[in-house]
Design a protein that fits this description.
Helices cover 26% and strands 12% of the residues. Strand 8 and strand 9 form a beta hairpin. By secondary structure, the protein is of the alpha/beta class. The strands form 2 sheets. A 6-stranded mixed β-sheet has the order 1-3-2-4-5-6, with helices on both faces. It has a 3-stranded mixed β-sheet with strand order 7-9-8, with no helix packed on it. The radius of gyration is 19 Å and the shape is globular. The protein contains 5 helices and 9 strands; from the N terminus they run αββαβαβαβββββα.
C-alpha cells in the first residue's frame, strides 16, 4: 500500500460507483464495539507510539519529541465497501483495516505534521463511503453521528489527559473534515479553547468562507487562529456550480486570490514512492470553488486520466504544508511570548 495516493487517484471513481453498499437500514444491533481511548491501541497515531505517522521521506526528520505544539489529525474515508465492509460504520477490531489506515493515510498524510507537533489521530468507527451517496439518508445520518461521537470522545480524552495547554494544529481530509467542522464549532468557535488554535488545515470537502462565527479563513502564510481549505482538480476542470461562498486556499501562496503559483514554488510532493520528494511536481491556482493543478508526473502517472485529484489534496503539496504549519506554530509562539 506504499503507493496509496497513486492508486486512490486512479481508483476513486470505482470506489464511489462500484463499492458494496451497507446491507440494510441502520441497526443499533449491528453497531461495532465502541473504542476506549485510554488504551493506546485505539489510536492510529500517538507521539509515544511507533506508528506510520512517524515516518519521513529522506531529508526530513520526525520532531515530535521536541515539538512545542500538538496536531490532532482526522483521516479520510478508508471504509469503502471492499470485501467484508458491509456495515454502516467501520469496526475497530479489524487488524487488516487498521493496517491499511497506517500504510495509507497515516504514512502519506499524517506524517506531514510530525515536523510540526506531537501527532494524535484516533481510530474511529467512520461512516461507510456510501453514506455520502446513499438514498437512505436516515441511516447515513446515524452513521455519521456515530463516527463523530468517537471523534468527540477521542478529542475530549486528548484534552483531559494529553494536551496540558499546548497549542493545537487541526488537520483533516475528506470525511475527517466532515468531523473537523463539527469539532471546531463545538470546542473552538467562540470557546476558551480558541486561544490555543494555531490553524486548521481542513481540506477535501467544500468548506464555506463563513463556516464559523468567530474563526476566519487564513489571510496569509503566517496568520494564526484561522483555517485553510481546498479541493484539487486537474487544470481545466469546470466546477459543477459557481459556489462563491466556498473557501479555497492556494497551498503554494497561502492566499485565497486567483494568482497563479508556478511549480517552482512547490517544495515537494510525495506520491509514489513515499521515500521520494518531488519538487516542482505541480502548480496551484484558485479557480472558483476549486483548486487547479497541472497533472503531476510520477511512475505510472500516464494512467491518471481523472480530473479529480482528491486523494492528492495534501500529498501534491506535502512539503509546503509541512513548512507552512511549522511557520504558523513559530508565529503563534512568538505572539504568545513563548
Amino acid at each position: 500500500m506504499k503507493n496509496w495516493p497513486f492508486l486512490l487517484l486512479l481508483s476513486s471513481f470505482f470506489l464511489q460507483s462500484c463499492s458494496v453498499s451497507p446491507k440494510g437500514a441502520y441497526s443499533k444491533d449491528a453497531i461495532p464495539a465502541a473504542p476506549d481511548y485510554s488504551r493506546d491501541e485505539y489510536w492510529a497515531a500517538l507521539p509515544w507510539k511507533a506508528d506510520a505517522a512517524d515516518r519521513c521521506p529522506p531529508g526530513l526528520a520526525n520532531l515530535q519529541d521536541s515539538a512545542a505544539a500538538d496536531v490532532f489529525f482526522l483521516y479520510p474515508t478508508r471504509y469503502t465497501g471492499r470485501k467484508g465492509q458491509k456495515g454502516w460504520n467501520a469496526p475497530l477490531q479489524d487488524a487488516a483495516f487498521n493496517e491499511e489506515v497506517q500504510e495509507s493515510t497515516m504514512q502519506f498524510q499524517a506524517s506531514i505534521f510530525n515536523g510540526v507537533g506531537r501527532v494524535f489521530s484516533p481510530y474511529h468507527r467512520q461512516a461507510h463511503l456510501k453514506a455520502y451517496f446513499s438514498k437512505d439518508t436516515a441511516s447515513a445520518r446515524q452513521a455519521f453521528e456515530l463516527a463523530y461521537s468517537d471523534v468527540r470522545a477521542a478529542f475530549q480524552h486528548y484534552l483531559a489527559h494529553y494536551n496540558q495547554g499546548r497549542p493545537i494544529v487541526l488537520a483533516s481530509h475528506s470525511q475527517g473534515t466532515t468531523h473537523s467542522l463539527r469539532l471546531i464549532k463545538e470546542f473552538f468557535d467562540g470557546q476558551p479553547l480558541q486561544k490555543q488554535l494555531v490553524a486548521a488545515y481542513i481540506i477535501g470537502i467544500p468548506v464555506k468562507k463563513d463556516a464559523f462565527n468567530n474563526i476566519s479563513p487564513c489571510r496569509d502564510s503566517l496568520d494564526t487562529g484561522c483555517y485553510c481549505s481546498w479541493r484539487t482538480f486537474r487544470r481545466g476542470a469546470k466546477p459543477r456550480r459557481p459556489e462563491p461562498e466556498i473557501l479555497v486556499t492556494n497551498p503554494l501562496l497561502w492566499t485565497t486570490g486567483e494568482a497563479y503559483a508556478g511549480p517552482e514554488l512547490n517544495r515537494g510532493a510525495v506520491l509514489y514512492p513515499f521515500e521520494k520528494l518531488r519538487p516542482g511536481a505541480t502548480d496551484a491556482q484558485v479557480h472558483g470553488p476549486i483548486l487547479w493543478a497541472k497533472k503531476p508526473r510520477f511512475p505510472g502517472s500516464f494512467l491518471l486520466v481523472r480530473r479529480n485529484y482528491h486523494a492528492g489534496d495534501f500529498n501534491l503539496y506535502y512539503l509546503n504544508v509541512r513548512e507552512n504549519a511549522q511557520a504558523r506554530v513559530k508565529a503563534f509562539l512568538e505572539k504568545a511570548g513563548k
